[in-house]
Amino acid sequence: MGILANPLGYLLSGLYDLIGNYGLSLIILTIIVKLVLYPFYAKQIKSMMKLTTLQPKMNEIQQKYGRDKALMNQKMAEFYKEEGVSMYGGCLPMLIQMIVVMGLFTLLRNPMNYINSDKMLLAIHESFLWINDLAQPDKWILPIIAGVATFVAYAFSQTSQMNSPNAQQMKGMTTMMKYFFPVMILLLARSYPAGLAIYWSGSQVIQIFYNIRFAKLKKKMAEESKKKTKKKPVKA
Question: For the whole prediction, is pTM greater than 0.85?
């Protein structure tokens, strides 16, 4: 992930040149990264929403052709083509997001490995709000914020996907992750630099608003799908 951490390091250094405050530079960097990733996240969510609205028809095909797997897959492929969707439409956007997030994680965990600037050597140790040294872990306040923000963001995401394909099969795992993942983030934030915890906290707060936005979009798509279904003539 060092390949991506280097350009992100240049961006962080450039922001510090403009702002002169490392904590604020981290917040601005977080906002920039989330805005850049928004189109990819939107495409991923819209693809999942589209598949959700098509789930009843997919179930019909599976029931009708379930005994002939080859024919069923053929009919599914024809259905996807007809509706203009892909079963894997959300995979590429998700992969891009993961690569960027891991690159940023790598940078903020050990910033001086990827920033060739003497002034940044001092900058990463600046104080910010109640934090005396952003290169050292904040033991409680930031980790709690990061954990709570992660829980809320995940809860919104889980609610918006509760009717998605395979949701019932994954219900147990998603419920476990809803509580396990925030606790894991809290524990990790207590051992990593406070700068990294600032990024994660800010990222999850923005994600909450993203999830609220897409929950409304999903509701709108579901209503439009119902209207289209009612308008379709009944085949004799």
Answer: no
